[in-house]
């Protein structure tokens, strides 16, 4: 019998994750993709949108490895990053002002109780007016990278969007291959308040929230001159995120995502589940 593995189940606005202090490599990195699929599977595993492994770092307080529920590794995750920061603080791995290594670069975060303010890498605005043929309709939106790729469409009524059906088609659209994209549908309520629904690559479904998607959506609304930062993002799970950034002639800078990162429970996993 393999020894049990301690983990914490956390969420950021309903985007939920399994976090493991992996500094002793209790989950071998070469097995992590498979372990993520097993642990994130609803009903059969713990169930989550992603797995986060916290490891030693030479350059920052810790290094993280982030895996989507389908086992794919992603460069960045805004909600997961907020959870990882709070996890590291609560387990004594880092102080309330911390940094961690990701495939998207070194990320800084500030902890204030349950709230975490996370600095995101400088976004890339890849296409501001992109038109896609999706089944029997023409969809226009913007395409950005906020650590991971995001397509953003501004709509009149976000409640009415068949997010799974349309999001899946856009995620797999030939325009975005081979890496694919996350897909966000945004309704602008006020110049500093939007509602966002996201179909997430690697979860292959709508999630209750997507941090990098909230940032991409907020920036897209500001680029369309319909919003001004800071922007409150109402997520599908009902919680609110705050997005801070500055639009300049050269692009976007000083990007932060703030919200609660909740520890739901600490658990112990049967080590035999990851053989
Ligand atoms: N599924 C995303 C990564 C997680 C993004 C999301 N959970 C967030 O909070 O930013 C991708 O593969 O691009």
From TrEMBL:
Task: List localization entries.
Answer: Cytoplasm
Q: Which GO terms describe its cellular component?
A: cytosol
Keywords from the named record:
Amino-acid biosynthesis, Cytoplasm, Isomerase, Lysine biosynthesis
Q: Name one Pfam family in it.
A: DAP_epimerase
Question: Which EC number(s) does the record attach to this protein?
Answer: 5.1.1.7
Active site positions: 77 (proton donor), 77, 210 (proton acceptor)
Q: Which reaction does it catalyse?
A: (2S,6S)-2,6-diaminopimelate = meso-2,6-diaminopimelate
Annotated GO molecular function terms are:
diaminopimelate epimerase activity
| The keyword Cytoplasm belongs to this UniProt entry's keyword annotation | yes
Q: Which InterPro entries match?
A: DAP_epimerase_AS, DAP_epimerase_DapF
Q: Name one GO biological process term.
A: lysine biosynthetic process via diaminopimelate
- Domain of life from the UniProt record: Bacteria
Q: In which pathway does it act?
A: Amino-acid biosynthesis; L-lysine biosynthesis via DAP pathway; DL-2,6-diaminopimelate from LL-2,6-diaminopimelate: step 1/1
| Residues engaged in binding substrate | 15, 68, 78-79, 182, 200-201, 211-212
Give a yes or no for keyword Transferase in this entry.
no
- Site residues (Could be important to modulate the pK values of the two catalytic cysteine residues), renumbered to this chain: 150, 200
**Protein role:** Catalyzes the stereoinversion of LL-2,6-diaminopimelate (L,L-DAP) to meso-diaminopimelate (meso-DAP), a precursor of L-lysine and an essential component of the bacterial peptidoglycan.
Record's subunit section: Homodimer.
PANTHER family (UniProt xref): DIAMINOPIMELATE EPIMERASE (PTHR31689:SF0), DIAMINOPIMELATE EPIMERASE, CHLOROPLASTIC (PTHR31689)
What family does this chain come from, according to its entry?
Belongs to the diaminopimelate epimerase family.
Protein name, per record = Diaminopimelate epimerase
